[in-house]
Amino acid sequence: MLKDYVKMIRPDSEFIKTKLQEARAELSGYQMKLKEAKLPVMVIFEGWGAAGKGSVMGKVIKNIDPRFFQVATMDTAPTDDERRRPFLYRYIVEIPEAGKFKFFDTCWMKEVTDGLCHGDMSEKTYASRIRSINTIERQLTDNGYLVMKFFFHISKKEQSSRLDALQEDKNTRWRVSEDDLWQNRHYDECLDIFDRYLEDTNRSTAPWYIIDAKNSKWAELQVTEYLNQGIDTALKNSSLAVPILQNTFRMKQMPLLKDIPLDKTISDDEYRTRLKELQGELDDLHNEIYRKKIPVIICYEGWDAAGKGGNIKRITGALDPRGYIVHPIASPEPHEKARHYLWRFWNRLPKTGHVAIFDRTWYGRVMVERLEGFCSENDWQRAYNEINEFEKELTDWGAVVIKFWVQIDSDTQLARFTDRQNTPEKQWKITDEDWRNREKWDLYEQAINEMLFKTNTSFAPWYVLESVDKHYARIKALEIVVDRLKKACRKVK
Amino acid sequence: MLKDYVKMIRPDSEFIKTKLQEARAELSGYQMKLKEAKLPVMVIFEGWGAAGKGSVMGKVIKNIDPRFFQVATMDTAPTDDERRRPFLYRYIVEIPEAGKFKFFDTCWMKEVTDGLCHGDMSEKTYASRIRSINTIERQLTDNGYLVMKFFFHISKKEQSSRLDALQEDKNTRWRVSEDDLWQNRHYDECLDIFDRYLEDTNRSTAPWYIIDAKNSKWAELQVTEYLNQGIDTALKNSSLAVPILQNTFRMKQMPLLKDIPLDKTISDDEYRTRLKELQGELDDLHNEIYRKKIPVIICYEGWDAAGKGGNIKRITGALDPRGYIVHPIASPEPHEKARHYLWRFWNRLPKTGHVAIFDRTWYGRVMVERLEGFCSENDWQRAYNEINEFEKELTDWGAVVIKFWVQIDSDTQLARFTDRQNTPEKQWKITDEDWRNREKWDLYEQAINEMLFKTNTSFAPWYVLESVDKHYARIKALEIVVDRLKKACRKVK
Fold first, then answer.
1. Which residues of B touch A251 (CB under 8 A)?
2. Burial level of A195, CB count in 10 A (0-12/13-18/19+)?
3. Chain B contact probe: residue of A139, A198, A204 with most B CBs at under 10 A
4. Of A108, A181, A392, A420, which has the most beta carbons under 10 Å away?
5. What is the mean pLDDT of residues A253-272?
6. Which residue is closest to B206 within chain A, CA to CA?
7. Domain match, B227 and B291 both
8. Do residues B143 and B208 both lie within one domain?
9. Which contiguous run of DSSP H or E holds residue B130?
10. How do residues A186-228 score in pLDDT, each as one tens digit?
């Protein structure tokens, strides 16, 4: 791409000046339209050191009210905390909310190409990074984001003379990094690597725009015009339906809910004995996963009154409070709703060695959001694959992902609802909404069967907890967690 | 892709039966909706020999009224005539019209992978084919086509036992080709090649769906469900705006129309002498390009009454009538309007060694169609790049593409219009529409400047013919044609 790149013929400066005035005014005019259309715009600046990314960005944002944009400076290496999260984490937490711009001063490209340039990234890791990046860029655009990617291009000679000029002046000397100088000395190798990256991530839904950055005003004009064009196109697509991709992940067979026997029980004695044993084991394992830096993500989904809360308590009862967190998931807050639906879960991922327990999860997308019409049909149909991709990202990172479906039958739910209603200290646990949801039992059951069938991947399988006998369900959950953590610990020395 | 492909868990035959009934009914129900929404659907069946493509296709089309679908059997090698056209030609002439299905029994994939399997395609040609295919698939989907690509997958063992069974029965023996047997003997090499091709052409806008084809009913269910899903998604996108890609072709500088001096003239004597000389040269060159199998495409665009007709006559006057054709381009016929706007031009491409002259061209998209609102803004903005890609396809094939802009000023047009109006034998040449278009001179000039600027590529540049003195313009056109053909002939020995 970069090697085939043909510079546009640069118009004379008078023409650039006139066009810039037009383009700036147009960009300025888009602010309110963006807000009305709730369009999130992610603008990524990548390119050669000293190519002028910062100065052009400074000019472009002058046309936008500060309430409508933010800048994310990702130019520095990941912090220690960020290194303990998945590769994409620090970028995804920064994605813009609906109706606003976010300007990225470098993004996931730089981290990957830096790794290749300095030889500390293997080919295998590179391939996995490219997969992650193409997946997230597709997920973002599929979910209504406009992703504009600019690569600022200058020649070796131009870079060299800019670096010289900056170094000569003691006021600008600090702006020249060791890395910039290294890059100029290894310009041709870097060019190969940049070219490869651009090729590998150039998709018509989020294409690259190469900016001839020799002249700053001309670069600003190119960026502003491409940006305007991109916004114009995106604004025309108010509600886009996106092709549903084939599931390409290895799946495990899953029974229909109605075929799962719910008569499993455990005696009180055995319950107490096993609980103690298993909690002891889990306690030890929590230490071990902490030392071995294994992240653990435990997901709970299930019918209302199925016994999720009590089940979670028996897990956390065995854990060191400094090493776990329980995330109760309710309907999204406004700032969460304004972003990709997985954003609030990305944001809550544990660090390596920690345990995150989700009381309800991202599967809300294909249950309540589907059935209550909070998202479009195309949105939830696409979500199965997006969720599988998300969980693949987590397990590739090294996480243990355990997904529980806590199962009861409709009669059991009715009995528990009635009990809650009639017991003063339990009344807070039952709401009108619970009764309303109960009326849709059959629709939910259908949606849940589809969900279990389409997301029961080999790397993040579902476990059904038969919870008519809550004790039985708790022991089964503990056994599964202990078993999965043991296996994970065995793999890491 | 194929290697990572994980077969879905095949449901039991009762389930398949029920689901098939639902899916068939759904497909059947889509016919009229497709027609109303004017959605063209291109369904491509590729896969292993004896994988059952034909039989599944036979079942799928049973759900569709014959008025709404056609089958294109592309399973055979290109004919001699097709070999004298660009690689994509024989497929593109078959694309469906709006509101209808076209089922392809193999398509451009087979020709490419066959070439690789049998070792008669170079890596360079392969790379160029992949570029062509990705470009045309993107152009089709960008222009509102639904492109569904199915790959029928069976194991080596399964293929082998199917071929054995077919061969044993003398009624089915004919269905086993030498190629099928060869493929089974070289299954693993073929798998590598198929896998590579699928990877190279898998895009989220036109993704691959791999079909587990071991069981025929199950295969039919998969195809029908994916097809329904694809149609459902496409129907939701009534008017889609598509991102405008960066132009990546090498461009030549182009002056604004107003800056082109129009006072160039030639004396009558010189005109007669040069005309004779040049037509003689062109006559010889026509022979040479015929022998050297060079295809030639000459495009005329220009203002009404600029003198295109007379100019073309001076070119054709020197050509052997058996070796050229003039295509006068008016507004598209209904069956042309129902397809991709470049389809009627693909359809009119010359064979190698022949000359096609277009009196008006595909540039109508960015002139009259733009200004009269016959296409959306997004359509014509995208068209510059699509046209450049189209012309790149032609020049890569080996064609000489010569584009003339026949230029006059507004006063000259007025004088010629008035003359036509007042001269009985010329009155047929002037219509009310000509006068109406004349009123939009400034808008047209702006659109033409943008067109010349954005499509003046190094491989298919524009030539302005100053045609206030028509004699001058004719001699200039002849000189350019002679010069370009000479250069092209010199390159081919």
1. 6, 8-9
2. middle
3. A204
4. A108
5. 95
6. A243
7. no
8. yes
9. helix B123-142
10. 999 999 999 999 999 999 889 999 999 999 999 999 999 999 9
Q: Is residue A22 part of a domain?
A: yes
Rounded to two decimals, the ipTM of the complex is 0.80
CATH of the domain at A427: 3.40.50.300
**Residue in B6, B8, B243 closest to A205 by CB:** B243
> Does residue A33 have a pLDDT over 80?
yes
- Residue A453 CB contacts under 8 Å (≥ 6 apart), including other chains: A254
Tell me, yes or no, whether B231 and B261 share the same domain: no
Contact status of A245 with chain B (Cβ, < 8 Å): yes
Taking contacts as CB-CB distances below 8 angstroms, the residues of chain B near A6 are 248-251
B182/chain A closest Cα distance in angstroms: 29
Other C-beta atoms lying within 10 Å of the C-beta of residue B335: 11
pLDDT the model gives residue B426: 85
CB contact under 8 A, A8 and B236: no
- Kindly indicate the confidence band of residue A302, based on its pLDDT and cuts at 50, 70 and 90: very high
| B238 vs A: CB within 8 A | no
Whether residue A297 is found in the same domain as residue A419: yes
Residue in chain A closest to B2 (alpha carbons) equals: A248
Are B335 and B390 contained in the same domain?
yes
pLDDT score at A450: 95
**Do strands A146-153 and A208-212 pair parallel, antiparallel, or not at all (unpaired)?**
parallel
Domain span holding position B424: 257-491
Q: Which residues of chain B have pLDDT under 70?
A: none
pLDDT(A385) > 90: yes
Establish if A203 touches chain B: CB-CB under 8 angstroms.
Answer: yes
Residue A8 inside a domain? The answer is no
Which of residues B205, B236, B267 is at a domain's end? B236
As a whole number of angstroms, the distance between CA B266 and CA B264 comes to 7
Q: Shortest CA distance to B472 belongs to which of B379, B416, B407?
A: B407
- Flag whether A245 is in a domain: no
Contact state of B246 with A208 under an 8 Å Cβ cutoff: yes
Residue A386's Cβ-count burial label (10 Å; 0-12, 13-18, 19+) is: buried
Instruction: Tell me which residues of chain A, numbers 88 to 147, contact chain B at a CB-CB cutoff of 8 Å.
Output: 138, 142
Q: Is residue B209 within 8 angstroms of chain A, CB to CB? A: yes
Residue B4 lies in a domain: no
pLDDT at residue B247, as a whole number: 87
Task: Judge contact between A141 and A199, C-beta under 8 A.
Answer: no
Task: Tell me the count of A-B CB pairs closer than 8 A.
Answer: 91
Do residues B209 and B279 share a domain?
no
Residue of A nearest to B4 (CA): A248
CA distance A334 to A344: 11
Q: What is the pLDDT of residues B364-393, one digit of tens each?
A: 999 999 999 999 999 999 999 999 999 999
Do B280 and B231 lie in one domain? The reply is no
Domain count of the fold of chain A: 2
CA distance B369 to chain A (A): 19
B8 touches chain A (CB under 8 A): yes
Which one-letter amino acid corresponds to residue B307?
G
Tell whether A229 is within 8 A of chain B (Cβ).
yes
Domain identity same for A270 and A211: no
Is A236 at the interface with chain B, CB within 8 A? yes
Q: What is the dihedral sign for C-alpha A16, A22, A28, A34?
A: negative
Chain A residue whose CA is closest to B10: A253
Cβ burial B470-492 (10 Å sphere, 16+ → b, else e): bbbbbbbbbeebbebbeebbeee
Please work out, in degrees rounded to the nearest 5, the angle formed at the alpha carbon of residue A52 by the alpha carbons of A46 and A53.
Answer: 35
At A64 the pLDDT is: 94
Query: Quick check: A175 pLDDT over 90?
Result: no
Contact B154, B162 (CB under 8 A): yes
